[in-house]
User: Fold these one by one.
Assistant:
Number 1:
Amino acid sequence: MISSNKIKFIDFYRKILRDLTKASLFGAGLSIIATLAMVFLFGMELNDYLTVSTTTSIVVDNSSNGDFLRIDFNIRCITFL
């Protein structure tokens, strides 16, 4: 099992040099939680960056006097026999 002295060594948030301070379990726990949160957030952002998503939307805009705007679609259908 891991001793509390080894866990205290993980304390990242010491304000003064290591020789002049004492590590605490609270600081080590905070360091571990912060590291896990940063790794989780980095992983989520990397996953979102690497995910390919395509969206298609068509929005019909009305003219200023309320008339409808005419839109023509040219659709080609290619069939292979």
Note: The first helix runs from residue 4 to 8.
Number 2:
Amino acid sequence: MEDKIKFELEFPIKASPALLYTYISTPSGLSEWFADNVNSRGELFKFIWDGAEEQAKVLSKKSGERIKFRWLHDEDDPYFFELRIQVDEITKDVSLIVVDFSEEDEIDETKMLWENQISDLKQVLGSA
């Protein structure tokens, strides 16, 4: 298996960090933009798209700042995806940083998928 490449995307979001954190860390928030439905039992999150299910485990989180998941089908892989809120100390501008990994030949597709997902998030937040 070839190694995946880590990448980071930054999206300016016009929303308070507290509100944004709710949308990236709770099943109800994530089901508004990330998946059709999201359920959680403790650290396990179940994401449902068009009837297909994927489970992810929360690896770490810091309230109001970030959450990091690992897909369970990739349990042995070192790969994860992280959603991190960044606030500019001077301007107070809020950005959502997405950290993810992709195969080299799929990196553009994966980035585009995130761009579409974050576009949905911005619409839900009224930040579009």
Note: Strands lie at 5-13, 37-41, 44-49, 52-62, 66-71, 81-87, 94-102.
